[in-house]
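Beta-lactamase: structure tokens wanted.
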Amino acid sequence: MSELDTLADRLGARLTELIAECSTPGAVLGVYSKGEFTERGAGVLNTRTGVEVTPDAVFQIGSITKVWTAALVMRLVEAGELDLDAPVRSYLPKFRLAEESAAASITTRQLLSHTAGFEGDIFTDTGPGDDSLAKFVDLLHDAPQVFEPGELFSYNNAGYCVLGLLVETLRGKPYLQCLREDLIQPLELTHAAVDAAEAILHRAAVGHFQPDPDQPPQPAGVWALPRSLAPAGSALTMSARDLLTFARALMSDDGVLGGESIRAMRTEQVRLPVLWGNEDAWGLGLRLTLVDGVTVCGHNGDTIGQHAFLRFVPERDLAVVLLTNGGEVAAMFEELFGETLRELADVEPPALPVPGSGRIDASRYLGSYGNALMTVTVSQDDDEDVWAELVYTGADGIAVPPQRFQLLPYDGDTLVTAQPQRGVHQPRAFVGADEHGRARFLHMGRALARLPETP
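Answer:
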């Protein structure tokens, strides 16, 4: 038995324990290392049907699809059809936003690196047809500018829908067809689907929610987000092996992309605020983290009750995938990935955020922040404890009740939740300063702007 199989057996046994601890109906863990693949599954795909998870089961990968969209864009760069630093309007002349100067200047590079600065949490369903992306991008004409293009990082779903339309326009075919013909087929993936009609041909997972912690997880009432969000994360469903195969292609220049494009995707474009550490950055479609002197590339994906994780380490020829259909799974992934990183890459994973202690001078943090998806109000009580109250408007099919949580010291202007969320204490960074010295943004991966009505 190989070192990889020995490790996988141990992690597979732990996976069975973890899905019970994390209220996760089912999961698949996949590992690729130096030419070898292995997967382990546990649990069920659907609590209503009881169908067991097998290693070849398919799960939605959510926003990991953005990495696929970035790869399609880089193929256009390689073909000489696209300049990353030319305005998007060079290729999409009808592209409009609420702020004309921003729409005229935003580049493909800024869209890929989440630095375009316009409101990105827009989830409008524009229908199931091939024109859904064009209709969606047309709706962005009144999307407000949160900050100047290129100023900072803020995760932007809508920006990737613009990239999808860019791919469609330059390739002359629908985005889903580009996925099939330019990536899925060349990689010879056999358990990858671009929509529900294809996914149902496989052992497909269903997302789950647990509104009542005293009751078992229940299947979600909606299976997938609308097609208009395909380039941002509503399209792809696949097995762990197929996602690992894609990751392997991003570590080698003999696949669907050349070496120059792959290196560009893995090159820092923007540094992130202190959320998970001081060494987090974003490349072209990829989150980049310096861990023990080694760069870890990756992306997470959340859809309706499904959560996916991808990490790969080019210097070690290692990739890890976790696919799940519900539960509090962030800590689950960190444990399994951390063990893999130690065993196969000789790299010590970073410590998870731990709340500090002491009084917080919250004067510049107090107030309300928001975007199209949520509003967060930060307050301080008579005991000088700092609280955040989140009201989430959400997307169709995703129901999240209001949340109130305490914030504790972590790292300078970054605080951290007192209680774990999705199994991990979540950092919240306060960024910038207005004319009164108050934070301009509450950063949670997305930059939530201070609301103007806040005193």
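Residues 218 and 318 are 34 Å apart (CA to CA). The radius of gyration is 21 Å.

Cheers.
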